[in-house]
Amino acid sequence: MLSAKRLTQTMVLALTSFLLWSQPGWAQEQAKEPFSEARFQALQAEDALILVDVYADWCPTCAAQQEVLASFRKEHPDVPLHVLRVDFDKQKEWVRHFGAPRQSTFILFRGEERVWFAVAETRQEEVFKHILAAAGQE
């Protein structure tokens, strides 16, 4: 028989696991990857749809953009969008490489072609429009 303390620990662990796995944003977070040059080049070679997201944890605009991306994934689960997150504070080389003037910058690629560049864009209709156009689903 489980002790009261052990039972409580087990219940807390089960509840925490349930909450983490059942959150609507959980799958979207898993769909985002930290940026690496190797992964970016591999996706480009596959002619993949890639959104480079220049992001900072402390940025409220970035947080708003994440909500827009979560909505996009929910409404368009069939669009194979790869989100590669460049850490604005720790990956300055890539921030400069992509010409991002600040955090909250989106750079959309279809393979090697850059098809959209936006700074601080949080309007859902704009973000959706550009991603869908690049995916050929206008």
Shape: globular
> What is the CATH third-level topology name?
Glutaredoxin
User: Class by helix and strand content?
Assistant: alpha/beta
Unreliable sequence segments:
10-30
| Strand order in the largest sheet | 1-3-2-4-5
Radius of gyration: 18 Å
Question: Architecture in CATH?
Answer: 3-Layer(aba) Sandwich
The CA-CA distance between the termini, in Å, is 60 Å
CATH class: Alpha Beta
Residues in helices, as a percent range: 40-55%
Biggest sheet, in brief? Answer: 5 strands, mixed
Extended strand count = 5
User: Average pLDDT value?
Assistant: 85
Count of the separate structural domains: 1
Instruction: Give the DSSP E fraction (strand runs of 2 or more residues).
Output: 15-25%
* SSE arrangement, N to C: HHEHEHEHEEH
Count of separate DSSP helical elements? 6
CATH homologous superfamily assignment:
Glutaredoxin
Descriptors for this entry?
138 residues, alpha/beta, five-stranded mixed sheet, 50% helix
Provide structural commentary.
The structure is a single chain. This protein is of the alpha/beta class. The protein has one domain (25-134): Glutaredoxin, CATH 3.40.30.10. It is 50% helix and 22% strand. The chain has helices at residues 4-22, 24-31, 37-45, 60-75, 92-97, 124-134, and strands at 32-34, 49-55, 81-87, 105-110, 113-119. The chain has a 5-stranded mixed beta sheet with strand order 1-3-2-4-5, with helices on both faces. α4 links the parallel β2 and β3. The radius of gyration is 18 Å and the shape is globular. The chain starts with a helix and ends with a helix.
